Amino acid sequence: MADTLVPMTQMSTGYVMGHDDRERRRLLLQASVLNPFSDELLKRAGLSAGLRVLDIGCGVGELSMVAARLVGRTGRVTGIDIDDGALAIAVVRARELGLDRIIDFARRDICAYRTDVSYDAVIGRHILIHTPDPRLVIGTAHSLLNSGGVAVFQEYDFSVVHRSFPEVPMYERLFEVFRAFFGQATHGNIGTQLFHLLIDAGFPSPQGRVEYPMDGGDDSPFYEWVAESFRSILPRAVALGLVRSDEIDIDSLAARVKEEAISRRACLLGPAMVGCFARKR
Fold first, then answer.
1. What is the CATH number of the domain that holds 12?
2. How far apart are CA 61 and CA 249, in angstroms?
3. What is the Cα–Cα distance from 110 to 134, expressed in whole angstroms?
4. Taking the model in full, what pTM does it have?
5. pLDDT confidence of 173, banded at 50, 70, 90?
6. Does residue 155 surpass a pLDDT of 90?
7. Helix or strand or coil: residue 80?
8. Is residue 129 part of a domain?
9. Cα atoms in the 13 Å half-sphere on the side-chain side of 237
10. Looking at residue 25, what is its pLDDT?
11. Domain of 198?
């Protein structure tokens, strides 16, 4: 039986960052920072040549491509998402990188995903934080796995605070808003919930690690990454009363954070990420 195509009107999403070209570009920028972390996580989880992998909420396909390099030409990666624009970018990038024979992308909603195919690994990066029912998603991942298959999730936890040093006031203000926003609008501490959620879904003995990138200097991608992430949440953060609409000039934000950081010779830290994986009995 082929994968069940769910009409877009029936798809559910809690994605708070939007579905437009600017957000898709932000995802590519974010991937340049996070892909090395994800690569190490997938290796620790045992992704290797010949495996069949499902990437849920694949967006522009960056995690799918990390997985594709690990499973090689004898493996297969399927990336699913509900954003047609993101999937179009993913298809083009996979072709440009010579990975299109390993990866296929499809417009699907994981909450309604049905298939006769079973997978050796189900992976997801920063998807549960936006999902109305993370338990349902992890339960679905469990049902799609072969016996011995592995579920691998990487999620932020905005409740963890590690400040820059020396302190960069503008950067700290942004993360104050991020923490409050994701705490109210999504599952802001979903990373730390991963261990519990995997056990609840029937996975034994999850393994996890908390880590985050640290960067600075003139050529750091952090300035634009954080500024564009803030741009994506700004309208809803204003509506929630977390920041005034006139408090931060969004168009000069990256330059201002960069100027503050360089003038203080400061390091900037990304949000804490929890990488967790577990195998199905």
1. 3.40.50.150
2. 31
3. 11
4. 0.90
5. very high
6. yes
7. strand
8. yes
9. 25
10. 82
11. 8-279
Taking each helix axis as running N to C, give the angle between helix 62-71 and helix 84-96, from 0 to 180 degrees, rounded to the nearest 10. 40
Distance CA 42, CA 150 (A): 10
Give residue 9's pLDDT: 27
> How far is residue 104's CA from residue 109's CA, in Å, rounded to a whole number?
15
Residue 2, domain member (yes or no): no
Higher-confidence position of 14 and 45: 45
- The tokens for 94 are 């996979």
DSSP state for residue 146 in the 8-state scheme: E
Q: What is the mean pLDDT of residues 202-218?
A: 96
Decide if pLDDT at 8 tops 80.
no
Q: Is the dihedral of CA 59, 46, 122, 277 positive or negative?
A: negative
Domains identified in the chain, total number: 1
Over residues 196-204, mean pLDDT = 97
Q: Report if residue 172 sits inside a domain.
A: yes
- Is residue 234 assigned to a domain? yes
Beta strands 214-215; 207-211: pairing state? unpaired
* Tokens linked to 139: 């339960």
Single-letter code of the amino acid located at 192: T
**Amino acid identity, position 108:** R
